[in-house]
Amino acid sequence: MTDALEVAVARKIGEFELDVAFTVESGISVLFGPSGAGKSLTLALIAGLIRPDTGTIVIRGRLVTDCARRIHVSTQERRIGMVFQDGLLLPHRSVLDNVALAVRQARGSRARRAIAHSWLERVGAEELAHRRPGSLSGGQRQRVALARGLAGDPALVLLDEPLSALDVEVRRELRQLIRGVIISSGVPAVLVTHDAEEAEELGDVVIAYNNGRVTGRRSVARPHGPEPEREEPERTESA
Amino acid sequence: MKLTRSLAQTFGGKQKAALIAATVVVGFGLGFGVAHLMAGAIAYWGVVSGPFLISLRVAVPATLIAGITGVASGYALAKGRFPGRNILETIGSLPLILPPTVIGLYLLQVLSPGTQVGGFLTRLVGHVLVYNVIGCIIVATVAAYPFCMRAARAAIEGVDPSVEQAARTMGLPNWRVALLVTLPLARRGIAAGLTIGAARALGEYGATLMVGGDINGKTRTMSLAILDSFTTPERNTMILILVLMAISAMTGVGLLGRTRS
Questions:
Q1: How confident is the model at residue B257 (pLDDT cuts 50, 70, 90)?
Q2: Which terminus of chain B, N or C, has less C-beta within 10 A?
Q3: Does pLDDT of B82 surpass 60?
């Protein structure tokens, strides 16, 4: 079976040197470690926002970065979804527009908006559809960002400390939502956090980072509780 | 004092009374100004209407052309990583620094059918480019362009690059990121540049005089007409109309840059 992601990259920024290699499979893989360990930099490299100095990145069997062969697929062509720490929603567009603009698999505004609506429903944010991001709370913003990250039928979703800017109560609530929605979507995910409890609760696999290196890897044993059933994401034919 | 006291008693409080008194005075002043303008406009409409319409015919297309080229080049300067960017910006900004007579002289040499370049351009366009409204539009565009370009560059550079990166992760191609994210987020700064550019296009007269020729009914804009009618009574009417045109342009373009939140 093909790995969801294969990463073997090195990148030097100033004095900091990142040199990591790992693979992830389906489910949620957590990059866990202290601040400044290189976790977010790794996500930026996977997303193609930054180029590595050396190495390769393969997403769902597709080579997207190979420094030796000068291959660098653009961020737009990588088919990834990304959830940022502070949401980074487009401030001048409505919540619905933010999600609809990320829909790649349908043509026509009506079809894209229908898919966006269904994702907003899945993250419990359907009533926010016509609001502007500036009027949302931190938790609401991250719900919308999660919907946006998954709405484009991505091959991989990357979450960069999506809960670190939120208070404890909202974090707990959103952890369950994030795990439930991602597992049910069937999209493999890589999540960055420096919170041990969060890593434990969200991850199927935890990859430990320290000072630009992978220092360990372990699977998280889950009690046999009901895991969310996998749902096929709504696909609307081209309008 | 009696009036203030009675106003204060009526409206409750000295501050409120002062505000009302000031409003009344300003209102009268504005009313008188507008009445004066209207009276002048009616009395001298025959003299004023020609330059007024020519000014509109020059300033509107000049602002549009300077706006489009200014925003496009401002975007290239803000986002492009090519050598000589700053030199290009300096060249584009020359009309800001050079005296209008120098700009007029250079434009005359470039556009005049008697010169090599001008002859080529005239044949290319199939129309003479000097001593007509096209020449005036070119001059006004050159005058307005640096304001549009510099403001656009600064505004585009001020857009948070992480929001643009987020848009790229959504799969939007770079041209859609520019149109749907960067330019809308920079619109306030761009609108400010367009406003000043529009005012500059409207007020330009030095180079216009040299390239357009101040021909009555053909290239005599409001600015040139004011210069010509310096000792005549319609001068004040034209100045007032020009001021109103500038305020309208600023308000209109300013409204475009308003942010809905």
A1: low
A2: N
A3: yes
The confidence band for A237, taking pLDDT boundaries of 50, 70 and 90, is very low
Q: Give me the architecture of the B51-232 domain, per CATH.
A: Orthogonal Bundle (1.10)
C-beta atoms surrounding A224 within 10 Å = 5
Q: Supply the ipTM of this predicted assembly.
A: 0.88
Phi-psi region of A100 (alpha: psi -120 to 50; beta: other; left: phi over 0): alpha
Domain locations in chain A?
1-79+156-224, 90-153
Report the residue from B172, B173, B185 with minimal CB separation from A92. Answer: B185
> In this model, does residue A238 exceed pLDDT 60?
no
Q: Does domain A1-79+156-224 match CATH 1.20.1250.20?
A: no
Write out pLDDT tens, residues B93-109. 999 999 999 999 999 99
Provide the β-strand partners of residue A55.
A9
Length reported for chain B: 261
CB contact under 8 A, B260 and A92: yes
Q: Which helix (H) or strand (E) holds A83?
A: strand A80-83
| pLDDT, position B1 | 53
Rounded to two decimals, the pTM is 0.80
- Quickly count: other Cβ atoms within 10 Å of residue A227's Cβ: 12
Structure confidence at residue B169 (pLDDT): 95
Report the residue of chain A nearest B174, measured CA to CA: A76
Q: What is the pLDDT of residues B7-33, one digit of tens each?
A: 555 555 677 777 777 887 888 777 777
Average confidence score pLDDT of chain B = 86
Inter-chain touch B259–A92, beta carbons under 8 Å? yes
Cα B107 from Cα B207, distance rounded (Å): 8
Test the B interface: residue of A43, A45, A75 with most B CBs within 10 Å: A75
Query: Residue A100: closest CA among chain B residues belongs to which residue?
Result: B170
Q: With H, G, I as helix, E, B as strand and everything else as coil, classify residue B165.
A: helix
Nearest CA-CA partner of B220 in B133, B103, B116, B101: B133
Segments making up each domain of chain B, as ranges: 51-232
What does the block give as tokens for A25? 């499979």
The CA distances from residue A72 to A23, A48, A156, B126, B160, in Å, are 19, 8, 17, 48, 24
